[in-house]
Write a structure and sequence with these properties.
single chain, Pectate Lyase C-like, two-stranded antiparallel ribbon, 5% helix
Length: 680
């Protein structure tokens, strides 16, 4: 087990304070022990009064003060010991009594360099010690054992302004141990182990309330036994290292849980927090709690497992690397508007499985550098229901293993400031493993470039994919499956099959260049924005290097309050050849712009008066099917035409001779119905 030598600033201060309090006593070499001096007064009394002790002698500097009045067959004894001086003893033993130390502003010094406090050495009654209103100071790194004896429970309560300074604390040593720090109490000292060192021994530490704090070196929760730390209601913990679920003796593995709950509840570690080091670790941050550390690892070594849940507007803030599944199994959930922040994120680092779910509005994982979903291991990331993930460059199955990412639900997004590599690493030109990205309804993925490696697959079946370019790598490349949703791309470096989505060039407005063929099936659509006469900057255009096989829909939209003139033409698609045709507008027919306001005549293919390899819009004007001139195509237009056709009054400027052949007949009726059903 790694041991950091640098202590937190407050811990160093505690050792200096302890040294001052222990001045005059040699702590480098154990002094000769006179005896255990036993407390005698079951009704309580003053520590410095001799009649309160067996034999009438107050424990001296070489003695251990023992509080053991409870006997089997009788009720457990409870009493208060008051302090009027600053005593010094070797240590304290509380086998099975309930003792309250009212220090009354005094300092109690314990000089033993070994075990200074033992609470719970009796299996008949749990030993309990509560300290208030003063200081208990031990030699630096002296032991405090809570649940000291085998199967003997113990409880230590540091409360109401009390301080315990200097020791290393074990909560659950031989028997179950409980530590409570509350009402402004403090512990400042060396390493703390909760739930150790024997398999099956449990330990629980609760730090609760504003002003209550534990400041220690290594915080090991579940070293071999089961340990739980609760940081509640504004309590605070500081450590140089945090390990949840450890293994001190390379035998049985520990179970470690830390709960940080409530606004202003905080755990700050100056070193790595590891959730599942060699055992099973769980970190729950809820109700506005905060965890801070430079780095974090979930699932550290083989056969370990770590689980992290961040919920209820809580945060885990890191300044460097965060690994989900280093060599062990790992699961991280960010929900309820919570935040996980790191510099570099890795899910599934080395031949193991890592899972991350970011769920719900306001839930975020923000990386200031790269994010790898499956580096050499297997990584899975789900972004759902309004959650957000951000990073610089993104990788799915970067070097090996299997990587999978899914973005779904209204408002969900993965924003990649640089490039997204699927099935490899474009920066290093390295082919990776099997990588998959699925974008579902409501989800948005945006990146500078999307690079598909041979085992890379991106499926757009809803939502939005917004990239500057889609590029295959290593000649073979990967697959882009376009089943639904909206595609914004400046360049598509492979043939594009639109099986049910909407191709929307550029970004209000822009150009999409497709290498190879473009095939638009009956359920696909093309959206063209027109806001001026310059293609690529004021109106959309699609350039197809091969054949454009057309079907499905064509959606025209006016932007920037632009109103074309009838004489203006717009080339919206340019291809090597054009085959097929749009389902709802044949060449030479009018198509209304979405939202009303007019229509264009659409030309393409062999019958076009323009270049047959282009789709051209011309002759902007009113939509003929808008028979009542109200700017909308609806059944009021149908009623107005029928009245006019049957000899009734016609709207201004309208006639029942809809096909303009000089006669009013059912050909006019058929022409109107065709225009009405096509939307213009």
């Amino acid at each position: 087990m790694q041991r950091l030598t640098n202590q937190p600033r407050l811990a160093q201060g505690a050792n200096r304070i302890g040294a001052c309090l222990l001045a005059g006593a040699s702590i480098g070499t154990p002094q000769a022990r006179a005896d255990d001096i036993n407390w005698a007064n079951i009704n309580g009394g003053t520590f410095s009064v001799g009649t309160n002790w067996t034999g009438g002698v107050v424990p001296g500097a070489n003695d251990f003060a023992r509080f053991a009045r409870s006997r089997a067959g009788n009720p457990q004894i409870s009493y208060t010991v008051s302090f009027s001086t600053n005593p010094a003893n070797q240590g304290i033993i509380v086998p099975g009594d309930i003792a309250l130390f009212n220090l009354n502003g005094h300092a109690y010094s314990l000089t033993s360099p070994g075990t200074a406090i033992q609470i719970g050495t009796s299996t008949t009654f749990p030993g309990r010690l509560t300290a208030t209103n003063g200081v208990i100071a031990t030699a630096p790194d002296a032991q405090v054992l809570i649940g000291a004896g085998t199967n003997a429970p113990g409880l230590l309560n540091i409360s109401t302004g009390a301080q315990l300074l200097g020791p290393r604390v074990t909560v659950g040593s031989g028997g179950p141990g409980t530590l409570i720090v509350q009402n402004g109490g403090d512990i400042v000292g060396g390493p703390m182990r909760v739930g150790s060192p024997d398999f099956g021994v449990t330990g629980t530490a609760t730090i609760t309330g504003a002003g209550s704090a534990v400041v220690v070196e290594d915080l090991i929760v579940g070293a071999v036994g089961a340990g739980t730390v609760n940081i509640l209601s504004g309590g605070r913990v500081e450590s140089t290292l945090g390990i949840l679920g450890a293994n001190d003796f390379e035998e049985e593995s520990g179970l470690g849980t830390v709960n940080v709950e409530g606004a202003n509840s905080r755990w700050t570690s100056s070193g790595t927090i590891t959730v599942g080091s060699a055992g099973r670790g769980t970190l729950n941050i809820t109700g506005g709690g905060l965890v801070q550390s430079p780095t974090g690892t979930v699932g550290d070594i083989p056969d370990s497992a770590g689980t992290v849940t961040i919920g209820g507007g809580s945060q885990w803030i890191m300044t460097d690397l965060f690994v989900v599944g280093f060599l062990g199994q790992a699961t991280v959930t960010i929900a309820g508007g919570s935040l996980l922040q790191s510099a570099l994120g890795i899910i599934g680092m080395d031949f193991t499985d890592g899972f991350v779910t970011v769920d719900g509005p306001g839930s975020r994982w923000i990386n200031s550098s790269d994010l790898s979903v499956g580096k050499d291991g297997n990584g899975t990331m789900n972004i759902a229901d309004g959650a957000e993930v951000r990073c610089d460059d993104g990788f799915i199955s970067r070097f090996g293993g299997i990587g999978s990412a899914r973005v779904s639900g209204a408002g969900s997004s993965w924003t990649i400031m640089g490039n997204l590599s699927v099935g490899g690493d474009v920066e290093q030109g390295a082919n990776g493993g099997s990588g998959s990205l699925v974008i579902e309804a409501g989800g948005t993925v945006s990146a500078d470039g999307l690079y598909l490696f041979p085992q890379g697959l991106v499926t757009l079946q809803g939502g939005t994919l917004d990239v500057k370019g889609i590029s295959p790598t290593f000649a073979l490349g990967g697959d882009f499956v376009f089943l639904g949703g909206v595609l914004h791309a400046d360049h598509v470096g492979l043939p594009l099959l639109n099986q049910g989505g909407t191709l929307a060039p550029g970004h209000s407005a822009g150009t999409t260049v497709i290498t190879g063929n473009y095939t638009q099936m009956s359920t696909g659509a093309m959206e063209i924005e027109i806001g001026g006469t310059a293609h690529g900057t004021q109106y959309d255009r699609v350039n197809v290097g091969g054949t454009a096989l057309l079907n499905g829909g064509l959606d025209l939209r006016l932007i920037n309050a632009f109103v074309p003139s009838p004489a203006q033409t717009f080339v919206i698609l340019d291809a090597g050849t054009i085959a097929g045709g749009f389902a709802h507008v044949a060449s030479g027919h009018r198509l209304a712009v979405s939202g009303g306001g007019g229509s264009f005549v659409v030309h393409y293919g062999s019958g076009s008066p323009f270049d047959p390899t282009q789709v051209v819009l011309s002759n902007f004007g009113p939509c003929p099917a808008d028979f009542d001139n109200d700017g909308a195509i609806d059944f009021f237009d149908y009623d107005a035409f029928v009245i006019c056709f049957e000899g009734g009054p016609c709207p201004p400027g309208k006639t029942a001779d809809f096909d303009a052949d000089g006669s009013i007949d059912f050909f006019d009726y058929d022409s109107f119905v065709i225009a009405f059903e096509s939307g213009c």
